[in-house]
Amino acid sequence: MTAIHRANFFLKIGVGLVLSTLAWLIPEWWAGAALSALVLITLWLVGTPGLRGYLRGAALLVLLVMASWLVNLSIQGVPVSEALTTGIKLASRLVTTTAAFFFIMATTSPGAILAACSAARLPPIATLTLSLLFGVIPMLQEDFARIADAQRARGMEIDEVGFLQRLRFALARGVPLLVQAIRMAHAISLTLELGGFDLGRKRTTWREVGLLVDSPSPRHVQENDP
Amino acid sequence: MLTIENAAVAYARGGDALERASLDVSSGTRHLVCGAAGSGKTTLLHLATGIIPRLITPERISGQVRIGGAATATADAEAIFGRVGYVAQSVEDQLWDLSLEDLIAFPLENRAVPPARLRERMGELIDGLKLRPLSGRRVLTLSGGERRMAALAAALATRPDLVVLDEPTTGLDPEARARLVAVLNGPELRNAALLMSAQDPGSLRSCTDIVTLLSGGTTNAPERAATLWPEDDRWRAAGILPPRHAPSPPPAPEPGAEVFGVAGLASMLARNDGQPVLRDVGFSLRAGEVVGLVGRNGAGKTTLIRTLLRLAQARHGRIILGGQDAGEWSPARRARSIAYLPQEMRRILFNMSVAEEIAFAMTAKSGMARDPDVAARCSEVLARYGLADHAETNPFALSARQQAVLGLVCAEAAGAPVAVLDEPLLGRDIAGRAHLERFLRTARENERAVLMVSHDLEMIDSLCPRLLVLDAGRITFDGPTRDGWSSPGFGALNWPAPAPGTPAPVPERA
């Protein structure tokens, strides 16, 4: 894991917010597109896990945004070139924003978020909310993929079929995903209760938290501790 | 430390309730509750930890439960949960996406333990439970046995006064079981009260002082383990196989034609050192064969199954199904020839009723449950496995044990030439074993092959005439099971061979 991956959660959030704000303030379509391209290249260069999957989703998002704005503005009599640049501008803003926050989710574990929040002495309720907000989405993504594997393992042909059929099978994952989400919520609440998570008591952390969130080996630290 | 007096629990949806349970567990004693699946063990342990009624509210509850003198229903949460360490049977139900270190540290961080002391305690547990090789790993990526040991470390982190373990040997290989027993016998729990539940008491023998049998939601009087151990009839009366269950030698049918073959299989998935998890796996299955596969936790058994089903990519190798090269078959096409039953069936359920699950297994299509032929076959197979009343039940509403039986039903109804059973949990109580043996008998009669993956060596010994040992990415033994236990391949695992009828002496506590 690179130092950029291990950056403090709040530092990542700060950079993500700055990039998003910048994307929505830039007036020129080409500058917005360049910024989103720069963000995507950076994500590739730093080896963001799961980038390929994100790019597939982002491509679909760009396609839908471009198509809807082209149709919408063309109906209103706006020239195609102008409609195209408007579509690019909006798609770029969305890509920059989602890419920045995808990076945070893909590289920050719930443990690292808990550590950053605890070190910042945030109230436990804020710690819990942030950990769940950024930690649960990747878990649900993994469960979604696992359910797809379950469908395959039961003989459901979801790979060698058309787009609409694939979409229908993806929707069929909704019920087991819901069940899994409920179980996950139960597991987390059980862990919190049994683990003594108390909204009235500030937590400590075993990690070393600064600009980076590091995970020292407990044995190594034990040997060097007085 | 723990007192349960005349407790009764009932759920609105029924199942696993307690009729009348009493239990007394003192500090420094190790108490084992044994009973068949559905006898109410988990409900009893939930009562003992305070999870019932604080986190799970049953429809009806009566009786008294006290931990260290504090009533679990009314005392402050920290007065209860601060004194209890708990590991659930389905350990996934108490894990989320944390690293090993985060999981162990979590209860200490919540109690504001200073970082230096916190790391010291983590180091003790990681080294004490020999978890160092798992350092830095996300717990959800660990194998089932590794997860259980990680959860145990987290449960022990605060040095609880009462440790409650629900089926603690589930998913553990013999080496990990020995490690678990060493921890339970060791200084970490010397002054704690230990309460465990098990369907398979054999491996917990050396860390059990008192046994309470639980049958139909009612506890029997507690007895000294040494007294109860040889009483086979008493165990059977409680619905479970006795700890010294002497397996009957499996019949050795004439092998039929080869229905499945693997040659030179290597996985794309690699270990930290870059070596593929599976390097060169080769074996074949013949019609009517029941073959056991054993290997260490993390040896690659699940990777092998996933690669056979093409849910994980193979680096190289051939897979032959029904005489055809299945290398390019889609996962779904392979799955129609290989019925797969994972340890946790709920992971592969996605239909809205039991009947639809079975209809899907038979046809690989949704919405076929109303087809008259399919419905008739579905009713017939459900009746054979005692699930006739559950045809319209949502599969997620079934108990874990019923879901496991549903897995057998689906596999039988599918009629696939090969079935892969990953650590079936049905093998240790009498009713579950009967279902499993019925499934295997039907498979033999219909010339289907079954590959059974398990750490339960006694079960493998009694049900599988042929044994495969997976080690270092290869099959290191392939032959008759009785020869396997003395083979170099099995010897390399450093596991004790199953020795029915000759239980190890009960050692004194460390």
UniProtKB/TrEMBL annotation, chain A:
Entry coiled-coil feature ranges: none
Keyword check for Cytoplasm: no
Keywords, alphabetical: Membrane, Transmembrane, Transmembrane helix
One cellular component (GO) term of this entry: plasma membrane
Highest taxon of source: Bacteria
Bilayer disposition of the protein: Multi-pass membrane protein
InterPro entries: ABC/ECF_trnsptr_transmembrane
Pfam family, one: CbiQ
TM annotation in the entry: 9-26, 32-51, 58-75, 95-115
Subcellular location: Membrane
Signal peptide: none
Family indicated by similarity: Belongs to the CbiQ family.
Protein name: Transmembrane component of general energizing module of ECF transporter
Organism: Salipiger mucosus DSM 16094
UniProtKB/TrEMBL annotation, chain B:
Gene Ontology cellular component terms for the protein in this record: ATP-binding cassette (ABC) transporter complex
Domain of life of the source: Bacteria
PROSITE patterns reported for this sequence: ABC_TRANSPORTER_1, ABC_TRANSPORTER_2
Species this protein is from: Salipiger mucosus DSM 16094
Start and end residues of each ABC transporter domain: 2-241, 263-497
Residue span of region Disordered: 488-510
Name of the molecule in the record: ABC transporter ATP-binding protein
KW Transferase (keyword) present: no
Alphabetized GO MF terms: ATP binding; ATP hydrolysis activity; ATPase-coupled transmembrane transporter activity
Keywords from the named record: ATP-binding, Nucleotide-binding, Transport
Entry-linked InterPro entries: AAA+_ATPase, ABC_transporter-like_ATP-bd, ABC_transporter-like_CS, ABC_transpr_CbiO/EcfA_su, ECF_ABC_transporter_ATP-bd, P-loop_NTPase
Pro residues bias locations: 497-510
